[in-house]
Amino acid sequence: MIAKGEPAPGQQLPAEPELCARLGVSRGSLREAVRSLAALGLLESRHGSGTFVSALRPGQMLAGFAATVDVLPLDGLLELFDVRRPLEAQAAALAAARADERVVARLREVQQRLAVSENEAERHALDREFHSTRCEASGNEALAALIDVLRARGSHYSIYGAVEADTIRLASDLGHEALINSMAARDPAAAAAAATAHLSQTEVWLRRYAPLPDDGPAAG
């Protein structure tokens, strides 16, 4: 029914008796289905008002997927890099073609704070803000939401404690600078190459050090 637009995004579901009759199911089965669809982001319950079809935006649709990605072991995370690489490159290229000066200025400001921060939690937050801002500048909500989901698990694998920590940090910062410069130049090809190189370097470090999952930040 939802896939056919009956009811449409934002509209309230019909009353339980009507839905049960229409679908030929019991109230218990219907309520279980509603809970499942709510967990997937398709429905939302509004206290005192009823159950409504969500806006069906990409970020909501990927919420359930995010929960599964967030428990992947390192080998599963590394497999995601093959998926992320073309997506990150495409997002960077679109951002370079579409971003305005305000976005570039925002990225420079975030990177300046990131470069001088000595707090891992702050660096993680700033790194995520940097990449989220860059991906949102692509103008494609679905692409930005999917990349955010695929990136999230990496935050549990810290590589900043490695023996090459200073080199890792410097390379990460330089990767960000390359992304900023390619966007400022409105060069989609350079932006795609910078995103690919930045992600590939992070993958190399993760494979080399194979960190255990924790709550610390990872580069990239």
TrEMBL record:
Residues in HTH gntR-type domain copies: 1-56
Coiled coil spans: none
GO molecular function, one term: DNA-binding transcription factor activity
Gene3D superfamilies attached to this UniProt entry: GntR ligand-binding domain-like (1.20.120.530), Winged helix-like DNA-binding domain superfamily/Winged helix DNA-binding domain (1.10.10.10)
SMART domains documented for this protein: FCD (SM00895), HTH_GNTR (SM00345)
Keywords: DNA-binding, Transcription, Transcription regulation
Protein name as catalogued: GntR family transcriptional regulator
Organism: Streptomyces violaceusniger
